[in-house]
């Protein structure tokens, strides 16, 4: 099987997992094989509280070390801060966040990565809020070598499909839905759900969808065809429905998270799930539908205080990480211990922070951070 065939089959499996979460472990195992690595997973982190967990993984990591990461070493991971600021869908590896020679000197590497033979990891953000991020992650063993251009290229190919599947999974609250009875199963969800054919004609809508159609604040129907009030968004979805006919792979980045604004100014978001292959095809055939469209209210888009600080003062991920640690923990020795890096490394980055922020002492940094957001200190 060549790359195109493997990718097409993998994408189909990804979308099937959006409806049946029990498939994720197998999908992630195939993803690991396609990109090349020791283990793949879907996980979340909170950049402020330094908490997180794995939603699903392929079992490629030792369970002891997997648990140890979230119990202890997530707070020492030198890449977390920079990962949070990555562009959604763009793979970032260790060297994108911290010089590799610094990385191998950290406690995180010496105590967690090296004992497992792990040398690198690539992460692709799938979704994020002000402080929380969900992502696809791939770990590389020493036999695979560091993340290279080929691994990044392949990760870019699958990331948008993972993003669509994960976002739709959140809308469905990760509950299993049998594709053969998709319409019946989804009638009770709070999001508006529409099964549409290639021309955008509505062949089924759930209760919430009918309410949206009747209100006509975000979308309406003309001669049975679904029309979004925003012409540009409407064209995006029309293109997405047309692409869905030719297979999962061709839908690409279209219609992953289409932003919509209601007449009253309230923001909504739309996601498209193709129904033309895999176990999803049973629903498409039953209803003459090529795609399922989910529309729901968007979460409040609150700016991230750490991101605002980094942009305001042009701080690197490591400089921001040291700044926040100094504010939260205190002195250089304590920060070095907490972050698992050398005191000299902390002093180097702290000196750059003082220079960029025009601060003279630690108290100035505390005031600076507090000025952006008090929750950052909690």
Task: Using brief descriptors, characterize the structure shown.
single chain; 378 residues; alpha+beta; Beta-Lactamase; Arc Repressor Mutant, subunit A; 5-stranded antiparallel β-sheet; 12 strands; globular; disordered C terminus
What can you tell me about this protein's structure?
With about 375 residues, the protein is an alpha+beta fold. The chain folds into three domains: about 5-170, Beta-Lactamase; about 180-295, PAS domain (Beta-Lactamase, 2-Layer Sandwich), CATH 3.30.450; about 305-375, Arc Repressor Mutant, subunit A, CATH 1.10.10.10. It is built from 17 helices and twelve strands. It has helices at about 5-20, 25-35, 65-70, 80-85, 100-105, 105-115, 150-170, 180-185, 205-215, 230-245, 250, 280-285, 305-315, 315-330, 330-340, 345-355, 360-370; strands at about 40-45, 50-55, 90-95, 120-130, 130-140, 190-195, 200-205, 220, 225-230, 260, 265-275, 290-295. It has a five-stranded antiparallel sheet with strand order 2-1-5-4-3. It has a five-stranded antiparallel sheet with strand order 7-6-12-11-10. A two-stranded antiparallel ribbon has the order 8-9. Strand 10 and strand 11 (about 265-275) form a beta hairpin. It is globular, with a radius of gyration of 23 Å. It starts with a helix and ends in a 6-residue tail after the last helix. Residues about 175-180 and about 375-378 have low confidence and may be disordered.
